[in-house]
Amino acid sequence: MTGQEMRVHVKRNSKKKSGYEVEKREDGFFYVTSVPSKKSSIQPGDRLLEINGIKYTEFKTVKRANDLFDTMVLDVEPNDDETDSDEEGSDSESKGESESESQNDE
User: Fold this and answer.
1) Is the domain defined by 6-99 classed in CATH 1.10.1740?
2) Which of 26, 30, 58, 79 is most buried (CB neighbours < 10 A)?
3) What pLDDT score was predicted for residue 33?
4) pTM above 0.90, yes or no
C-alpha cells in the first residue's frame, strides 16, 4: 500500500450472515455450498480461490474459511477531493464504525 492508502476491517453484525458458505473436499479445495441469491454470479459448486485477499491454501479449516465471510477487508485510497483535515477525520470515522460494529457482535 502507498502512504495514502488505508486498510479498513468491517465486521458484520453476527445476526446478519453473508449467505455464503463453503466446504472443503477431498481434493483439498474449498467449494461454495451456499449463496445468498440465485442471481449471484457465484454459484454452489464454484471452487473458491480467495476470500478478502486470503488464498484458499491459508484457510486451514472450513470454520476459518466461513468466518472470513463475516469480515470485509477493504484496501482503499481516500478521495483526492478531500483536504488533509477531512482525510484525518474520515480515517477516524472509518475506524470508529469498524470498532462499533465489532462491539455489536459481542
Assistant:
1) no
2) 30
3) 92
4) no
Map grid coordinates 483535515 to a residue. 85
User: By the 8 A CB rule, do 41 and 32 touch?
Assistant: no
Domain ranges, ordered by start, for the chain? 6-99
Q: SS3 string of the chain?
A: CCCCCEEEEEECCCCCCCCCEEEECCCCCEEEEECCCCCCCCCCCCEECEECCEEHHHCCCHHHHHHHHHEEEEEECCCCCCCHHHHHHHHHHHHHHHHHHHHHHC
CA 48 distance to own-chain centroid? 14
On whether the CB atoms of residues 68 and 50 are closer than 8 A, the answer is no
As given in the structure block, the three cell numbers for residue 10 are 468491517
